[in-house]
Amino acid sequence: MKNKPTREPKTLWEKLTAPFRVLSVEKFYWFWVVSYFISFAGLLIDLLNHNFSNSINNGMVFSTCMAILPPVFIEFISNYIYMNRKKSKEEYSIYKGWTMGICIVILILLFLFYVTEIKSSRIAQLICFVVVFFALFYTYLVTKMEVHDTVFEDFKDKPYLEAEKEVLSKTRSRAKKLKTTTTAEGVEIKL
Known about the structure:
Layout: H1 12-16, H2 22-25, H3 31-39, H4 41-48, H5 52-57, H6 60-68, H7 70-86, H8 93-114, H9 122-143, H10 160-177, E1 180-182, E2 188-190
Antiparallel strand pairs: 1-2
Helix pairs in contact: 6-8, 8-9
C-alpha cells in the first residue's frame, strides 16, 4: 500500500474541522451524542413530572454541564501521562492545548453563571447546553485523533526538535566534508 503524500491544510476551516474526520472512519463515535443527551435525563424526568420550571430556576443545565466537563480533563491528563510513560511523542498538541484551554474557560464561565442571577435564565441555559455540547463533542473527537492517526497525517504537529536535528545533521555532514576554510583576513587554513 502506497503512502499518500502529505500536504499542509490550506485553510483555517480545514484545520478547525479536522477532528470531525474521525467520524468518517468510525461511525460508532456518533453514539457519544446519545450519551450527552442521557446526561440530561434529569431534566427530561423533571419535564415529565411538571418540575421543569423548578429545575431551570435552580440552574440544572449549568450544574450538569459543570459535572460533565471534568472527565474531559482526566482524559487529556491520563493520555499525557500514558504517552510520557510510553516515551512516545505527543501528537496533535496544538489541538489538545486549544481544546483544553477552551474547556477551562467554559468551566469558569459556567461556574460564574451558576453563582449569579443568570442561573435561572432559560436562554442562557439553552445557549450553555449547545455550546458545551459542541465543545465536548469536539474535545472527544480530538482525543480520538491519535487512535486514527493515519487519517490525520496532514495535521500532525511539526516537531521543532526533529527539524532542528535534521539541520544539525546536515551541518555536521558538511563540516566533515570540509577540507579547508578561509579566515576573515583571507588566510586559508587546512583542517
